UniProtKB/TrEMBL annotation:
Signal peptide start-end: none
Positions of the HTH gntR-type domain: 19-86
Name of the protein in its database record: GntR family transcriptional regulator
UniProt keyword list: DNA-binding, Transcription, Transcription regulation
SUPFAM superfamilies assigned to the protein according to its UniProt record, in alphabetical order: Chorismate lyase-like, Winged helix' DNA-binding domain
Organism: Saccharopolyspora taberi
Recorded superkingdom: Bacteria
PANTHER family from the UniProt entry: MANNOSYL-D-GLYCERATE TRANSPORT/METABOLISM SYSTEM REPRESSOR MNGR-RELATED, MANNOSYL-D-GLYCERATE TRANSPORT_METABOLISM SYSTEM REPRESSOR MNGR-RELATED
Family annotation (CDD domains): WHTH_GntR (cd07377)
Amino acid sequence: MAAQHRVAPGPDALGDGPLPKHVQLREILRELAANELLPGSPVPSERELACRYGVSRLTVREAVGQLVADGVLVRVRGKGTFTNRPRIDSALHLASFTEDMRRRGMRPETELLGSAEQVPPADTAEALGLPPDRPAYWLFRLRKADGEPMAVERGWYHPDRVPGLLDRPLTESLYTLLDRGYGVRLEQGTQTVLAEGADPETARLLGVRPGSPVLVFRRISTAQGRPVEDMTSWYRGDLYQVTMQLDRTGVPAGPAHPGGNR
């Protein structure tokens, strides 16, 4: 029977010890991602890691899987595994995507995917104060930061507040266009935030797997007390987070309601 030849373990091979090898490897990769690799950089393949550290690919897969679950690494279908990008933090203020990204030193980009003048859903018509059969302007846009897909937006706009909107350039800051082109400065908004899994179309546009977590923002904005915009945005959950200032001022006394806030 022919002898089996094995590759001798290299100088980085992991030894037996109190910690399992997948835990040792996980911490090595965590340190690599934090201190040596730039955000968005590829990490070595399973085969490379297995050879370098003298472990099985199953061990590599377990270590990498834990870091993906922790948000340190991210898998991209057909491309490999990468260090995660730091999340963009939002404090829930009324500002355009373009303004927000520029303030962070990032390059905003907008792709217009669709636009139409059509009758909106009933809840949007109510939010905008329109009769049930009155058309409104609809925009469908993809927002990017430094070339990375960040959000999908579907928005409705009151036709009397912004007449002829669809004939305007719609790939720049819409809030700047409303202000300079119509004298409409959005001043207040009511925003609802929820989390859901990305549907196939949203996932394709954002470059993530279907079912990946996305943050959904629905915002109804007003100018001089009149509704102008009903916008829903789907943001990548791996690149975006929300910070809120909380206090107990004005909290009414009374028993807590089961099931959280509604």
